[in-house]
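Our working data are protein records whose layout never changes between entries. Getting from the letters to the tokens is the skill we practise here. To make this concrete, we reproduce a full record directly below:
***
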Amino acid sequence: MSNTTHGRFRAGLTFGIMAGLVALCIIALMSIRVVRDLRLLETANSDNLQWTVTQSEVEYLGMLVEVDRARLRETSDLSDLRRRFDIFYSRMATLKEAPSASALVESEDYRTALNAAQRFLDRTVPLIDGDDETLRASLAVISADARDIRQNMRKLASTGLSEFSKTAEERRKDVAVTLFRLAVVAIGLIVALALSVVHLFRLNRQKVLRQKAMVQTANRLNTIISTSLDAVIVCDAEGRILEFNRAAEIIFDRPAAGVIGKNLLKTTCPPELRSGFLDKLRRYREGENPRFASRGRMELQGIRRNGDRFPAEVAVQVAHTADGHIFIIFLRDISAQVRAETELVQARDQALAGERTKTEFLATMSHEIRTPLNGLLGNLSLLHATKLDGRQKRIVENMVKSGELLLRHVSDVLDITRYDTGHLRVDHVPTHLDRLVRDLIDSQSAIAAAKGTTLSWRWIGEPMPWVESDPDRLLHILQNLIANAVKFTHDGHVSITAESMHTDEGGHEVLFRVRDTGIGIASELRATVFDDFVTGNTAYDREFGGTGLGLSIARRFASAMGGDIGLDEPDGLGAAFWVRIPVRPTDPIAESTTRKQTNDLQTSTIGLNILVVEDNEINRVVACEMLQAAGHKVTEANDGKAGAALADRTRFDLILMDISMPVMDGRAATRAIRNGGGKSAETPIVAITANAMAEEQAAFLEDGMDGVLTKPLSDSALAEITGRYAVAESTENTPLSDADHRHQTRVTFGEEAYEKLVGKFIAESKILIAELSENGTLSNAQIERRCHQVAGSAAIFGATAMQQNLRAIQSAAKGDDPAAMAVHLSELGLIWEKTKLSLQP
């Protein structure tokens, strides 16, 4: 321990001893003084009260003597008697009212004696205060009463003295306790003082160690600051530079010696920014809290000695020192980072622009390819319906197969684009797995038989026939695997199995396996078999064709459904593919009646008046001939403007509207028809488009269209559309809803958007029914318009009965037929309740 430490210790110890002695003396003096004061105070009070108690008996006896003298007429003057009575009265009042006598009053004997004396005084006062004659006449009574309380007065005096003795003893004990406590306090103070001395010594030692640590910390901090890669600058509240580390010298190209003491802003800040910071420093000196401090990192501009500017990341902190407030600025040159971010943003923008261009290109190509395909396949369909010989039929059928193959290729490319851009929708609807796989096997059985190959299908373990899944995506995956197995197998066997399994999370999944005894897959292709455009053989003379997109699309579909797909190692000839798809078990549902509904609708819609708006002459002719062959009356328009004009003049039962047309496109024409108030303003409008992108189809419906029909057209598709939007005379035999159409709508919009649209449809239906139930609330024109709006929504969700009932109410309102309207309104409530239940998942 150093001499300095010893000196501080001795000084602390001496100070502690002297402080203890002084404290002890003070406590002793205070104790003596307190005891003395207490004794004096208590003695004065008790002596006065004791004297009064004893003197009260003396005064009583003196008063009794004067009474006897006056009664024996030894004196004619009664003033001495009155004086003696007053003195006795005063003594008794003191004993009764004095605060120091409160302890005596608590004694039963004392209180009894005192009350007896007080009663005597109360009876005698009126006589003493009366005239002499009255007083003289009452002397015998007064003397008798006075003698009656003699024993009470003696008891009063003796009881008082006894109580005083007890009180004095208790007070002595209290004083002794007080002194003991005072001594304990004194000892405690001495101990506390000793502990304080020890604590002061420890604090002194800690202070010495802390000072040493602070010196070491300061040295380390200076080393850190001087070697920091970020500039560290310290300035005072006036902006004068106090510290300028090595990194700051490098960044600003200024030596520290040349900037210490100079203004920070003039040294490091561009001229146009200085006034703002000077104003902030001024407000800070005036007491305002600096907002630029403690805000984290800010991006500002700095300036080097040569005038070059650079982006900097700056953080400012405020510290309080003995010399005043200082600002610590941490600055980092981020020129390289900003350049990298700029290049990254440019690359991102270019990538996004490329994706947009790709999407737009695919949408355009979809339209441009599907439009001539529509004309080709439509004309082939019409040609096939004419009288042809066998050779001609084979040629037409081959052309149809080629067109359908081309259409599948276009669809494959669009599916890849949807997945890669995040627009691929996956549905979850009840699906019969047994039926789905059997249908696939039936479709491939003829090709397999031609190759001498057999097909088999079975469940491994407990079957799970009904599940919630996306049947379209699953069908595409399995169809690709089974078709490939059949294509590459001659005189062999293809087996398809399914196995229901439980996942670790408690869910369910189905594992499909497709095994064949064909040519198998080369080892060098196994790692890339699920990549795009991988065919295994690109030679012109290859035996098996294909684009190489089938398995890559299957992989994308499996991933979108939350599953996986893969290829097992061969255990012999052929290949073994598997696909694992998450599912949810569900209850069986009734068989779809869509085909029966469509046939019924075809029968009930013969003779509709239909407007076809299409700019492509071939497609227009094909559509018109198909519709006319079905017995409909058809009117043609070659652009949207002409179609809108015809719809304004003529009441059509249905309008088929192309989208991409010159002069006025189909969306604009639809808005013009809906807003024009013409004769066909309420007529169902169905889009005919080659654009298969879901977002575009959703936009068509928002424009006021009632449905979408994708090119190329077919007889069955046109028959289903004409039947769905026909206005029937009654809804009694109308199917409640079209589950297949509702499923297609769900797939088109996606699960989330579909649920939102269903909620909106339910809300607007409730409002309409409430409005229709209030008689006289809506005019016929309002009823017509509102029913048309909700009927369009009902058509989107396949609510056939609801749609046709609203169309009937709409027609009744337009024809001002209250009787027919009342009939249909009476049916609406029940239809709506059933429809609402059918919309629930």
Remarks:
- Residues 537-545, 591-605, 727-733 have pLDDT under 50 and may be disordered.
- The radius of gyration is 56 Å.
- The longest helix spans residues 150-227.
